[in-house]
Specification:
alpha/beta; Rossmann fold; Beta-Lactamase; Alpha-Beta Plaits; 3 domains; six-stranded antiparallel sheet; five-stranded parallel sheet; rod-shaped
Length: 437
């Protein structure tokens, strides 16, 4: 059997030779040659059936074995010239030498003409060349079909995944599964590329999410992050925002490719934020609660001991808050607490933490802050507190106790120092601050 040209044939094939023998009796030597070359032979009884067979059946060669008359050959060859499906089929003609053979050769220069007695070695050589070309063409078509089939299998595998999945090269997205396309409300990857300049253009900046900021490829930047930080928020055409955890695996063929799997964490993230809100934030004022403050304080004290960086706290107490509740009622008291928390939160740096300590007491953690800066900060806080009005005749005031951390302290000692300073501030007239170094 003739094998594919790369010697990795998936299946053998037998080229088909369509024979028209005007004399009705095929030359035995020629028949043996066809058999040796493993050609599948189809014989046409007459010229009309040859043309019909050649048009309707996939044939690889046409062999015309003619007598001295050139009429049938002319008619067949004219027809083959006019029909596009037949124009690329090699045609071999055998006939007696003479004027008819010369006329045929002059008119149809693309045929292979052999005169009697048949030169079997030349015919075999010519058929061998055609077989190589046909083999390569066959292998190419088979390869295309195989590749198409493989791509269909790959796409089916991608579509079977429960998560959004896409394959990228450094140039951009190459493959995507049906869940990916469904999320972006497109039918094909081509439609996605028309809608969006690049996949990373769908990323939006939200809390704890990744957005590429430099000239580096977004996949390279994401792969440099710890797994738990590989989070992106993506918008689709309906401006719906979803949060995904990104998993990236690479493989190398002609270049490096990346299989990117997107796990939708939106519901889990929202649930965790709701839990965090209940667990770590004060429901009345919206600021951090005592538990969150103590966790952060322990963390920052450890960093301060390790690196020798300064750390301070402020303890706040609303002046005469009991009289506010007694005079105006608890609803007004709650409103004052909310307004106080909002006013002071505006003065808090991003790296610091402001929390409700309990009742009318609040507390603030100030990182990289020593006692020399505390009076300036405390003055701003007192001023912010006075912006809260209780009624048209009365503004809120607070008292502040401050303390700075030393490496031999635990959190209880540090808070005790701030509490002692707060007691002095209240004893010395309120609406003021005191500090314990």
């Amino acid at each position: 059997m003739l094998k594919r040209f790369d010697d990795t044939a998936l299946e053998a094939f037998r080229p088909t030779l369509l024979l028209y023998n005007e004399a009705s009796v095929i030359d035995k030597a020629l028949e043996a040659l066809f058999e040796r070359l493993q050609l599948r032979l189809i014989q046409a009884e007459e010229a009309e059936s040859l043309i019909e067979i050649a048009y309707e059946t996939k044939v690889d060669f046409i062999f015309l074995s003619l007598e001295s008359s050139v009429h049938e050959a002319m008619r067949i060859l004219h027809y083959c010239e006019e029909v596009s499906e037949l124009q690329m089929i090699p045609i071999l003609v055998s006939m007696k030498s003479g004027e008819h053979a010369l006329a045929l050769q002059e008119r149809f220069t693309n045929i292979d003409l052999f005169t009697l007695p048949l030169p079997l070695s030349r015919i075999e050589h010519r058929l061998g060349l055609y077989l190589k070309l046909i083999g390569k063409s066959y292998a190419y078509e088979q390869s295309k079909q195989m590749l198409h089939q493989q791509l269909r299998h790959i796409q089916a595998i991608l579509n079977a995944q429960e998560e959004m999945l896409a394959v990228f090269s450094d140039e951009g997205i190459m493959l995507a599964n049906s869940r990916f396309l469904h999320f972006f409300e497109v039918e094909t990857l081509e439609e996605f590329l028309l809608e969006y300049d690049a996949f990373e253009s769908t990323f939006i900046q939200e809390e704890e999410s990744f957005v590429p900021q430099s000239h580096q490829h977004w996949i390279t930047l994401l792969m440099a992050l710890p797994n738990e930080e590989r989070n992106v928020v993506i918008r689709n055409s309906r401006a719906a925002h979803h949060r995904f955890r990104v998993q990236i695996q690479s493989y190398t063929l002609d270049q490096i490719y990346y299989v990117v799997t997107l796990f939708d964490m939106t519901d889990l993230y929202l649930r965790s934020k709701t839990y965090e809100r209940f667990a770590f934030y004060d429901l009345l004022t919206g600021v951090a609660n005592r538990r969150k403050f103590e966790d952060r304080l322990e963390e920052q004290m450890s960093l301060s001991r390790r690196h020798g960086t300064p750390l301070s706290i402020m303890l706040f107490d609303l002046d005469h808050f009991k009289s506010i509740n007694d005079t105006y009622g608890h609803d007004t008291g709650d409103a004052v607490l909310r307004s106080f928390a909002a006013a002071l939160s505006k003065q808090v740096r991003k790296e610091d933490l402001f929390a409700r300590w309990g009742g009318e007491e609040f507390i603030m953690l100030l990182v990289h802050t020593d006692q020399t800066h505390l009076p300036t900060i405390a003055s701003k806080m007192l001023e912010a507190a006075r912006t809260v009005t209780i009624d048209e005749h009365r503004s809120l005031t607070c008292s502040i106790g401050m303390a700075s951390f030393h490496s031999d302290m635990d959190k209880h000692a540090l808070i005790k120092k701030a509490d002692d300073a707060l007691y002095r501030a209240k004893a010395n007239g309120r609406n003021r601050f005191e500090m314990n170094a």
